[in-house]
Amino acid sequence: MKHCPPKFKADAVALYESRAGAAIKSVAADLGVNPETLRNWIRAAGVGSWPTKAEPTPVPFPAIPLAAPTTPPRDFARAPRPPVPAPPRPAAPAPAPPPDPHGPHGRQARQCRCVRHG
Hints:
Layout: H1 6-18, H2 24-31, H3 35-45
């Protein structure tokens, strides 16, 4: 990050002020700084027409007479809701069937004839 001396910042703000109608982007390009950096220096110096965070001025509204209500006000209070019943518990899983004596493929398994088991 490049730090600029206060003299350079003041000169940059003065250059911006001296160029009437010049864009910050063009002045920043001439100085070789980022436009946002120059914009921050200008704001810090209090130069330019930047919006302030002042309170907005209240706008007076004309007083309009209200008509008398034609219906009585409704009562928006609700009766308490009944409690929601708990969902039913799932049934216990069925027991696993006994293993097939002939193996998973439905036929009797052959004995292995490899060297290891032979």
